Inverse folding.
């Protein structure tokens, strides 16, 4: 009789140790760990160890405050722009619309960001699906207590109960799947935030460029008109040809048309920013920042590695793959894949995670849904590798475009324009001494204006290339 009790105690001990090991392996989700209270294991009079009583703390109305704070932090810690407190109203944008002000307003008013934020907040409600986890574990504890029965009663109870109650390790996997769901929604919010910041930056830069181009084209038109007057005077005195006058007319018309095109471009970018900021379509910005010169000094290989590590699209796929792998873990334990990983109650009020076909282990092990999920996981792995290759290619092209614009900018700023200014000084001196007419002076002025337009386009191209590179990498480059 003593030996039977000893064997029963040893068998019960092995069951408990196995279940506890299964539980310790997964440790539950971050959310569950933060709300889990563990009581000290007790020992019965018969020296049979019992499972620790695990109770999920009752969630208060503010129980998810920390999770929501982390969610709101996604917008602030987007990697591309550090928002600051800015109470600028829509009306003040007509007087002063700096890039920082525009970006701050975009983060608080953009509808896509609001939608992604609401979707992420909705994902937090998935944690309600594990709110009754303590009830399940309490039932499991009662189940382990009943295993102390001996003989055929114990064998029958063990056979029936073992199929009905999941182990803590399975519950832990379910909780981690919900963690991945919330992580995925946060990454989607980060992706939307980065897209909004990048689109707003590019639109703002192109609006700056168009506005500056309008000024230069107006100057160019005035210079061509002055040239035409000089040429007409020369023609009247038989010192000039009619063809030069006609060519000046052509240049005047072309310059006026280019100014109209620049204005249309500015209006288009204004409309784009109005949509991004969710402000009235009639809003017009004033006091734009001066177009800056972006400097981008970086090692291409190092930047590519950083892009593979930080690009949000890659992180999204990796999160989706991690979630799918946990689903496969559940499936291989003869549980159907359930991407939402919720717990359900049967009609009699008890909890169950059993699939309908679990009575036949062959079908559970060879379920078509499980095979499909495994194949999808393989496809997703290949997709991640392909996205990394695409990211490398896009990044190299973007950096090459930046260097091309930088080369043009350096050429005109440090070489061409200084020489053109020197040529203008020579022409003025010659005109003042009577060695030449004013036509050469005006033509030298026209040349400088044209070179400034080329310099402007190169400067704008550098800014846009920088923003695109930073979007691929996921953080600001210095």
């Amino acid at each position: 009789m003593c030996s039977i009790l000893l064997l029963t105690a040893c068998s019960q001990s092995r069951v408990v140790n196995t279940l506890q090991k299964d539980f310790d392996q997964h440790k539950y989700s971050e959310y569950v760990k933060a709300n889990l209270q563990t009581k000290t294991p007790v020992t019965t009079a018969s020296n049979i160890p019992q499972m620790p009583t695990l109770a999920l703390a009752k969630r208060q109305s503010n129980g998810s405050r920390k999770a929501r704070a982390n969610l709101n932090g996604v917008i602030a810690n987007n990697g591309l722009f550090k928002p600051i407190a800015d109470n600028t109203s829509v009306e003040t944008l007509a007087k002063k619309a700096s890039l920082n002000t525009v970006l701050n307003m975009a983060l608080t008013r953009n509808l896509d960001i609001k939608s992604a934020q609401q979707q992420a907040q909705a994902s937090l409600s998935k944690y309600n699906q594990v709110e009754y986890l303590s009830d399940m574990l309490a039932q499991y504890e009662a189940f382990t207590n009943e295993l102390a029965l001996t003989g055929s009663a114990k064998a029958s109870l063990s056979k029936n109960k073992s199929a009905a109650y999941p182990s803590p390790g399975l519950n832990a996997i379910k909780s981690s799947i919900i963690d991945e769901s919330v992580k995925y929604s946060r990454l989607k919010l980060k992706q939307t935030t980065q897209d909004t910041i990048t689109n707003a930056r590019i639109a703002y830069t192109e609006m700056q460029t168009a506005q500056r181009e309008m000024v230069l084209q107006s100057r160019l038109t005035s210079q061509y008109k002055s040239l035409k007057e000089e040429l007409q005077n020369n023609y009247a005195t038989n010192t000039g040809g009619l063809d030069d006058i006609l060519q000046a007319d052509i240049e005047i018309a072309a310059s006026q048309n280019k100014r109209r095109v620049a204005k249309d471009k500015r209006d288009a970018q204004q409309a784009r920013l109005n949509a991004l900021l969710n402000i009235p379509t009639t809003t017009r910005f004033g006091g734009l920042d001066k177009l800056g010169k972006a400097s981008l000094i970086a090692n291409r290989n190092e930047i590519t590695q950083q892009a593979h590590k930080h690009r949000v699209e890659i992180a999204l796929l990796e999160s989706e793959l991690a979630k799918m792998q946990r689903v496969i873990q559940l499936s291989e334990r003869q549980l159907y894949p359930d991407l939402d990983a919720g717990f359900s109650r049967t009609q009699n009020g008890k909890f169950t995670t059993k699939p309908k076909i679990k009575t036949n282990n062959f079908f559970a092990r060879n379920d078509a849904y499980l095979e499909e999920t495994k194949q999808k996981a393989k496809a997703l792995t290949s997709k991640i590798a392909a996205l990394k290759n695409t990211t490398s290619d896009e990044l190299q092209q973007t950096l090459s475009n930046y260097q091309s614009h930088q080369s043009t900018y350096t050429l005109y700023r440090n070489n061409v324009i200084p020489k053109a200014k020197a040529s203008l000084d020579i022409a003025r001196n010659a005109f003042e001494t009577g060695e030449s007419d004013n036509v050469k002076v005006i033509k030298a002025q026209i040349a400088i204006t044209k070179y400034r337009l080329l310099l402007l386009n190169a400067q704008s191209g550098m800014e846009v290339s920088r923003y695109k590179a930073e979007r691929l990498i996921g953080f600001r480059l210095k």
User: Anything to note?
Assistant: The first strand starts at residue 36 and ends at 38. DSSP finds 14 helices and four strands in the chain. Strands lie at 36-38, 54-56, 344-345, 351-352.
